[in-house]
Amino acid sequence: MPELPEVDAVARRLGEWAAGRTILEAHFSRPQTTRPLAPVKVSRQLKGRTVVGTARRAKNVLVTLDDGLTLRVHLGMTGNLYVGDAALRSAATRAWFPLDDGREMIFDDSRLFGRMQIFMPTELAEFSQQYGVEPLSDEFTSAWLAERMARSRKPAKVFLLDQAQVVGLGNIWAAEALFAARVHPFTPVNALATRQVRALHGAIREILGGAIDEAYRHYSMPGTTAESEGFGVAIYNREGLPCPRCRRAVERIAQAGRSSYFCPRCQKAA
């Protein structure tokens, strides 16, 4: 699944390519792409709309249209949304939207897990409320993080993956932030010292911000690189390799159905 940096890159690039363009038509090759609404209904809502801009909320691409409508796109496991010539359409194309400049907005989704919805302003607000705070927003402060962690007994890695707390970190960047802050993934977050919470807050913002910048520069589509390739990871997917800080072998443990990578020397359990 595209991680938050990749989704952010999709949203930013789409905004550069499509802002100000009018959608002439909307076509869907698979009905599940727009469920629960029928494709024909979504097509009618999109036809003639102008793209005002794009944004990201958690791992969703939000395409703002005129008259207050928003097209929400979830990329699923392998989705990609971009603008190009009609010739770029492939067997994986599930939706395409001819634009008034002769190009098309194209949605590829080989695994068929992607979804598209149309939101009115009130519906968009309700949708957004189901997610926690954005990790690079002004709301995400060390004080906010400390207050939330003080009320939770969840292990640090599980807490960071909870989308109702902090959105979009994902397995890679949670592991990287914990390593940078020297926090063991199994440590209950209410047991962390104030200095550890501050270190973790700073690590999240620095690492995720850097990954977003790198994804924007290098990302083309899901599957063209390994999940973490090119983003300068220190610990993720490096089991058995030397820790870049102390040279002890990196270990991997199963945690909540995911793999957690950590250095047993730098990230001692509480």
Characterise this structure.
With 270 residues, the chain is an alpha+beta fold. It has two domains: 4-129, N-terminal domain of MutM-like DNA repair proteins (Alpha-Beta Barrel); 142-262, Helicase, Ruva Protein, domain 3 (Orthogonal Bundle), CATH 1.10.8.50. 31% of the residues lie in helices and 19% in strands. The protein has a four-stranded antiparallel β-sheet. Strands 2-3-4-8 form a four-stranded antiparallel β-sheet. It has a two-stranded antiparallel sheet with strand order 9-10. The chain is elongated and about 60 Å long.
A few lines on this structure:
The chain is α+β, with helices and mostly antiparallel strands and 270 residues long.
